Amino acid sequence: MMGLCLAPILLMGYAMTFQPADRNHPSNVDGVVVEAMTCEKGLGVDAKASTAGLFGFGLQYGLPILEETPVTLTFLPKAGLSYTTTPRRELPQTAQFEVGGQLLLGYGPYRVGLEYWHLSNAGMQQPNLGLDMIVVQTGFAF
Predict the structure, then answer these.
(1) In sequence order, what are the beta bridge partners of 118?
(2) DSSP letter at 2?
(3) pLDDT category of residue 69 using cuts at 50, 70 and 90
């Protein structure tokens, strides 16, 4: 049985909407994002919060691509639940699902990340437009 990895990483960055569902009435969800992860290899937990009122919590699984010391490169697929403080046209419910993926480049304890973050209600309420964001981050591994 796999255990949960515990080697914390803290990241901070900026989220940009790259695929507004309705270009005539786009929601303003661009903003600062803070993210905490339990680890970058194997099974872990991920939580993030943005200044646009979007929050996410889910599972991730770190797949190392490069493990040369001191440089690392990891791909992390993610899935979980998300919450918005303000219902938006793209997210008519306050609670919905999240999926995404992240590339995390490390040099010693320092990290730079590029993440795709998708929020959607999975068709539980119409319209099911969803939000697609790119998050650029930097941070530190403990």
Answers:
(1) 99, 132
(2) P
(3) confident
